[in-house]
Each structure stands twice: as C-alpha cells, then as structure tokens.
C-alpha cells in the first residue's frame, strides 16, 4: 500500500518546517533582532491547545504549551 513507507508527523511540526519558506513580509519579528542574526525561531499556534515549536538551525522541536508553567512576572 505504501511502497516507500509511511511517516506520521504532528501538524505543528510540519508548519515549523515550512517557516524557512516564508518571505520577510510574511514574518513578524519580536524585539530588536536583526534579520541576519536570526538563527532560532519559535512558532506559537493557539487552537484546541497551545502548540509551540522551536526551530534551531534545521531541527524542529515541538510541544504542547499547556504543559508549561508560565511565571506571572519575568
């Protein structure tokens, strides 16, 4: 049925891999980061939960944000 195998990916993981294909006009930078300094990125995706994905170089790390403790102050 699947001669080359089957790979199952999380939907947020797929979105994170697609980030590098976005143009500068499609990206909103937070803070005073210069474009050429950007190596790590984050994807925040609210839906039925709060999906989070970090992109470091070409590696994607995804998780559910509802599992995190967020402090009241930083």
Brief characterization of the structure:
With about 70 residues, this protein is of the alpha+beta class.
Question: What can you see in these coordinates?
Answer:
It is a single chain. The protein is of the alpha+beta class and 74 residues long. The chain has one domain. 11% of the residues lie in helices and 27% in strands. The protein has a three-stranded antiparallel sheet with strand order 1-2-3, with helices on one face. It is globular and about 50 Å long.
- Provide mean pLDDT, rounded: 81
Q: Largest sheet, order of strands side by side?
A: 1-2-3
Shape: globular
- Main β-sheet: number of strands, strand sense, barrel status? 3 strands, antiparallel
* Structural domain tally: 1
| Cα-atom radius of gyration | 15 Å
By DSSP (H or I, 4+ residues per run), the number of helices equals 1
In N-to-C order, the SSE pattern is: HEEE
How does the helix and strand content classify structurally? alpha+beta
Distance between the termini: 52 Å
Q: Beta-strand percentage?
A: 25-35%
Taking pLDDT < 50 over at least 5 consecutive residues as the criterion, the unreliable ranges are none
The total strand number stands at 3
Residues in helices, as a percent range: 10-25%
Q: How is the quaternary structure best described?
A: single chain
């Amino acid at each position: 049925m699947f001669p080359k195998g089957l790979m199952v990916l999380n939907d947020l993981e797929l979105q994170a891999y697609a980030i590098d294909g976005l143009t500068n006009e499609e990206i909103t930078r937070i803070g005073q980061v210069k474009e050429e300094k950007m190596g790590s990125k984050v994807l925040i995706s609210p839906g039925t939960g709060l999906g989070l994905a970090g992109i470091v170089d070409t590696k994607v790390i995804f998780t559910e944000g509802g599992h995190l403790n967020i402090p009241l102050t930083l």
